[in-house]
Amino acid sequence: MRCSLTGSYVLILSVVGVSQVVQASPVAQESRASRTSSYSYGSFTYTQVTSTRYATSLSSPLSFATPFAPAFSEVSTLLPSNVTYTTYDLHPSQTAAPDGQYGQSAYAALWANLSYTSAPPFTTTVTPIAVPSSELIYPPTLYNRIYSADLKLPSDFIWGVAASAWQIEGGLQLEGRGPSALDTIGAIQSNDSLSDANIADLSYFMYKEDIARLAAIGVPYLSFSISWPRIVPFGVAGSPINTEGLQHYDDVINACLEYGITPIVTLNHVDFPLSQLSDFSSLSENFLYYAKQVMTRYADRVPYWVTFNEPNIGVGTSFSEWNDLTHVLTAHAAVYHWYKDELQGTGQITIKFANNLAVPLDPSNSSHVDAALRYQDFILGIMGNPLFLGEQFPSEALNTPNLNLTPLTQDQISTIHGTIDFWAFDPYVAQFASPAPAGISACAANQSDSAWPECVTATMIQADGWLMGDMSNAYASIAPQYVRQQLGYVWDTFKPSGILVSEFGFNPFADSQRAGDAQRYDLERTLYYQDFLEEILKAIYEDGVNVIGTLAWSYLDNNEFGSYENQYGMQSVNRTDGSWRRQYKRSLFDYVDFFHEHVESA
Ligand SMILES: *[C@@H]1O[C@H](CO)[C@@H](O)[C@H](O)[C@H]1NC(C)=O
Ligand SMILES: *[C@@H]1O[C@H](CO)[C@@H](O)[C@H](O)[C@H]1NC(C)=O
Ligand SMILES: *[C@@H]1O[C@H](CO)[C@@H](O)[C@H](O)[C@H]1NC(C)=O
Ligand SMILES: *[C@@H]1O[C@H](CO)[C@@H](O)[C@H](O)[C@H]1NC(C)=O
Ligand SMILES: *[C@@H]1O[C@H](CO)[C@@H](O)[C@H](O)[C@H]1NC(C)=O
Ligand SMILES: *[C@@H]1O[C@H](CO)[C@@H](O)[C@H](O)[C@H]1NC(C)=O
To answer: How much distance in Å is there from the Cα of 351 to the middle of ligand 2?
Structure first.
């Protein structure tokens, strides 16, 4: 270096294969104020400030010393003996000749009101090619970031990435898949490969490549979801099981292990079988029927299971009434009890909750504090109370006129309580809460109030007029200042054994309109992740909260429920040039780097 800086800066010197963090001493900081510069001329020379550093791949393959459940051959007797195993092909002409309740024509009829106009450009599994080393070169080092290098994470910290079936798979009408609730969005939204969920990222055929790329850059955990209607096309208990669906996810799990990645499996990520939507009272029976099929087969190789994704915000979208949440709790508990007691699984099971923490707009105003707490009760207490505390639904919800939420019986509470091994939630950002304009009780009594039933006004603008953080293309923002309170709220309220951040992410404004190179240099996304992770370290070390892992949303730009504009990916997917090529963005390198810095070796 030509000029030596002292003071409170942290310099990160990057040399090949090594990132060295130099922290200025407190003594140097104290003397900074009194320092004066002394200027002098020298002889100018160029200095090389970048050096080439390569990602470290996972060492494959992975095998677990003890399986997490008995092998399928030992537990297949837990399945009903009269199940039909078959597959389906979608030919519109088959609607003409009826061939029984669950025949090919009945299958075609399931799709009668849904049509995708574009077809996937290929329909067979792509064999992955080794990621060329030129793609594994680290981006320029983040300058002057303050890394708390001395704060370590345990070697079993669950760090990785996440995505869900419908958002990346494509091939929605292939290999016997039945229609899902989400297809009603997908089918009407598009006519072309740029926006059609029937194509998406083609991950149904490129999953091996996706997994190989994560292993090449060194990501050890992958959270994905199984498409329920690929396993049970008609969605109902007793209906046929699709063998091609079973085979597919068996392959996905094996590919993870082959490349050294630990799978985290979600059984349902919003894509309920279409038939379920009309009546959730049969959810428990249908969900258990499906779960048994996949868990008997895969549970030996899967340490972590998620039953449902974000059901706590599903009323009004997936669910038509609040009592449907009781059906979700019951279905979850049924699977939990069956997995632990019948299958004798030793893995862990949870539900993922949505929650952007409500913090009072004015913390000194008790009505704002009440509004924030009421919001949290509606979002988290509604399921967290029975699951974690063995308690009734929050009184704020039960006392809201016309909500039509039936209190749980004591029997239901005992069945549900404790059927969850750790807390998992998706805290993208926080928001400021105050009472709805009419006031909470007037609003609660007025079903036509637009803020009903929560009756809370939420905003991203703090009381003094500033935005809480740099805004994204949607609602998230770079606001690390509330991460510790998000974790603290859950920790102190529900007292879980541990907390998994099961999704967090950022979609930069107008990202999809930028050139590919600019999209890949995603500095905002990187700042979001680095700031968030630094705050998690403080939650662990300063607040005593047991955060057991973080999963970034998402490892690919994908279909954000009808939009490809909201890009959350740490990899781009070229959906315009016909290549479907994935490319790493800088945020994925920096994310991996953070954990290499902090996670202790086993
Ligand atoms: C399969 O067996 C179960 C339990 O005996 C029964 O309730 C169900 O109706 C049978 N299903 C079919 C398709 O035969
Ligand atoms: C398709 O729409 C028609 C008319 O609304 C309805 O009667 C039928 O039940 C629908 N079919 C399916 C499979 O949803
Ligand atoms: C897709 O094409 C159909 C028929 O050509 C048309 O009615 C519909 O509006 C188109 N949808 C979009 C989103 O362009
Ligand atoms: C507290 O908040 C309420 C609702 O926003 C407002 O009407 C009231 O004036 C505030 N009280 C104080 C003391 O600021
Ligand atoms: C209920 O809310 C609606 C919509 O804001 C409003 O028009 C109406 O006056 C409210 N009713 C009462 C009784 O406050
Ligand atoms: C897709 O590929 C085209 C042609 O190579 C390129 O111009 C474009 O920037 C790429 N898009 C992305 C997001 O990488």
So the answer is: 32
What is the Cα 540 distance to its own chain's centre? 21
Strands (DSSP E) found in 355-406: 358-360
Task: Establish whether residue 363 lines the binding site of ligand 6, counting it when its CB lies within 6 angstroms of any ligand atom.
Answer: no
Cβ atoms of 460 and 467 closer than 8 Å: yes
CATH of the domain spanning 47-430+474-598: 3.20.20.80
Task: Return the higher-pLDDT residue of 84 and 13.
Answer: 84
446 lines ligand 5 (CB under 6 A): yes
- Give the number of the ligand closest to the Cα of residue 432: 4
Q: pLDDT value at position 91?
A: 77
What gap in Å lies between CA 314 and CA 311, rounded to an integer? 5
Question: Does ligand 6 have an atom closer than 6 angstroms to the CB of 516?
Answer: yes
Residue 446 CA, closest ligand 5 atom number: 1
Helices 483-494 & 523-541 angle (0-180, nearest 10): 40
Q: At what angle do helices 243-258 and 203-217 cross, to 10 degrees?
A: 10
DSSP for residue 455: T
Which residues approach ligand 2 with their CB closer than 6 A? 109-110, 112-113
- For ligand 3, say whether the CB of 115 is within 6 Å of any of its atoms: no
Structure confidence by residue, pLDDT tens digits, 548-584: 999 999 999 999 988 888 999 999 999 888 899 999 9
Residues with CB under 6 A from ligand 4: 365, 367-368, 434-435
Angstrom distance (rounded) from CA 485 to CA 534: 14
Q: Are 500 and 490 contacting, i.e. CB atoms less than 8 angstroms apart?
A: no
Residue 349 neighbours by CB under 8 Å, 6+ apart: 304, 305, 306, 307, 335, 336, 339, 340, 419, 420, 421
**Who contacts 92 (Cβ-Cβ below 8 Å, separation ≥6)?**
108
Q: List Cβ neighbours of 158 (8 Å cut-off, separation of 6 or more).
A: 221, 262, 264, 304, 500, 548, 549, 550, 551
Q: Whose CA is nearest to atom 11 of ligand 6?
A: 516
- Residues 6 or more apart from 569 whose CB is under 8 A from it? 554, 555, 556, 557, 558, 585
Q: What is d(CA 590, CA 139) in angstroms, rounded to the nearest whole number?
A: 8
State if residue 33 touches ligand 6 by the CB under 6 angstroms criterion.
no
**Is 547 exposed, middle or buried, given 0-12, 13-18 or 19+ CB atoms closer than 10 A?**
buried
Domain boundaries, the chain: 47-430+474-598
Nearest-angstrom CA–CA distance, 418 and 91: 46
Going from the Cα of 576 to the center of ligand 6, the distance in angstroms, rounded, reads: 7
What is the pLDDT at residue 196? 81
Number of residues assigned to the chain: 602
Residue 189: per-residue pLDDT: 59
Ligand 6 neighbour 571 (Cβ under 6 A): no
545: DSSP letter: -
E strand intervals along 331-376: 348-354, 358-360
